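Our consortium's second objective concerns turning raw sequence data into structural hypotheses that experimental partners can test. To show how far this objective has progressed, the report includes one record in full. It was chosen at random from the queue rather than selected for favorable results. The single chain below, 231 residues long, was entered without modification.
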Amino acid sequence: MFKGKSVLVVIPARSGSKSIKNKNILKINRKPLINYSIEYAKKSKIVDNIIVSTDSKKYLNLIRKYKLTIPFLRKKLLSGHNTPDYPVIKDALIRCEKHFNKIFDIIIILRPTSPFRERNLIEKSIKLLINNKFCTSVRAMQKTDKHPYRHWKILKKTKFVKSVIGNISEPYNLPRQKLPVCYFQTGDIETIKRNTILSGSVSGSKVLPLIIKNLFLDIDELEDLKKIKYF
């Protein structure tokens, strides 16, 4: 609870993964990835409840020692590799409010694939969220080292390439000094107002950035796993 606002942490961890099998429970330093996010959430004194949204009983058995109340298994319909975040988070919110018989004002997403987070991101993001009445969510971001103005896409029909930026003439030819500062969303944390989710979005239209200073390490492919083990 923070200034009268109840806080729910959702850790999304489905069992299927195309890139790396059982990615969410891979071990780094002999500890499953999912454990890092649970332990991070448990360190915060303002979190009311922590749940893991998973379709796997095996995953729940692995985290039994944390004595979390996990009131449901995620439905198969919400566990496919093409399932977007929104229905998963909305499902978790609605089912948790029914089970715990309380309203959660703030929902936080901690992804297992971002195990090494800076300190106090939960507290910092919530302060940003509630101190701006227009803010719909807060998302961790970091200044990008690969500018989108230099990105291209291959056209299916002609096989020629085209800039991904459509409203600027030849953005790829702009000098570096004229490029706007751009930020890439990391997977460290997303903090969302309840009304944003109930209105049909997991982010909303008024997103505030929480700038991450440390090296961002996210695991999606085998190469990422090698890199994170090295660091």
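The partners drew two points from this record. The chain has six helices and ten strands. The CA atoms of residues 12 and 163 lie 33 Å apart. Both points have been shared with the crystallography group to help prioritize constructs.
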